[in-house]
Please model this.
Amino acid sequence: MSLTADDIKQQPRASRWLALAILMLPVLLVTVDNTVLGFALPKIAGALHPTASQQLWMIDAYSLVLAGLLISMGSLGDRKGHRKLLLIGSLGFTVVSVMTAYSSTAEQLISGRACMGIFGAMLMPSTLALIRSLFEVREERRLAVAIWATTLTVGSAVGPLIGGVLLEFFSWGSIFLLAVPMLVPLLIFGPLLLPDSQPDGAGQIDTISTVQSMVALSALVYSIKHIASDGPDVFALLAFSVAVVIGWLFVHRQLRLPTPLMDLSLFRNKAFSGSVSINLMSLAFLIGFVFFSTQFLQIVLRMSPLSASLALIPGQIMAIAMGILIVPVARRVSVNVLIPILLAFTAGAFLLVAGLGSSLTVLVAAFALLNIGVGAIATVSNDVILSAAPSTKAGAASAISETAYEVGVVLGTTVLGGLATAYYRGMLQLPDFLTPLQVRLASETLAGAQAVSATLTGDQANEVMYNAIRAFEGGTSLMVWTTFSLAVLAILIARCTLKKNQATSV
Model:
């Protein structure tokens, strides 16, 4: 027998927190999937031989679809019931994940990741909506939202650790099978512990707006990826033009619809728009760091996946701790002071790598600094976003916040990762003794160069890897300096948009 919202009010306090624990399983899984693939890329490259562009799409296909559908799925949950959507999404995510684990080509894996994004979009908005149904007492709800926000960061932070452990003992497909133990408990206990939300049948989901948002975002990402892999050309320009035109049409349509897919009026509030921007940028910084550090640790420093993941544990601990410890601080310190301080930790992480290089010690320290900032920002900025929006638009605000999170993940690999990849391809100098096929493989990615060197012996293998590592380190240097500059920009955005003397209500 399922529970209604009225039944939940009569349940013991422990039952609500047990329900919250069940709700955190899909949140953790969806965010883990954003970073866990980074550690598997070297093994996937050896097994499926993807191009540089395909490697980026393996990461971004999931986040791109997820970001494009989050707002639509939030509206669908309002109309059909969030618990129903959560359970359908969990079942679909589990089935598709198992199928993706046994992909035999790069195209199959990319398609599987895209399908996972469809079902993942059903999960995220439903979790926050059900938290509002579970916790009607304001103090309990504040803590529950803080736990939810912390779980977002924790998932991204522990993804490398989970990936390292799985890849040490199992094949690369094991990272996708993780969905089974994570979501099966939700499918079993969800109907018993989670309330039915009251469906609102008013209005229809605007299909045109959904398609416009997906096309605009996909075209933008494609143009950036194409520039990274093939350089600027007419195809990149055409894709970027499509993104601009369709994006403009999307905004114009939202301003005219009586019930828009995305309520753009929320962005008139400076605190709201500033916090969304900071949320997006901070996640891009985290994903960009994971993108290059996982390859550096495993390929350049020749660490096993498990050893490389263990090296990042201090940063993961900081992400978990700061997500909770920042709560009492945020009540007393103005956000236009607190968030710039947290962003300074993020900027410091990249400045450390830029100044001292990418040694093991530097990467461990930098990842810890990065997660001090990002872990706390996730909690504080989400509270500012919800506080800045009227209570009647809390659902729309949370959907925009979650969309910004996923777009940040996409930009972390597309812009920052693509920048490093473009430098690598442009500056790599390969010896004349390589065949045309070996040159093509080595020019795609650092993992490709490693695979080519494995077919050579002695000085020839060493020469290929030496040149590839030099090009990769040059791309990394360009990326970290760019990210440091963007972090400084984020500090300025926070100072200009967040209200003075405004403490959060976390």
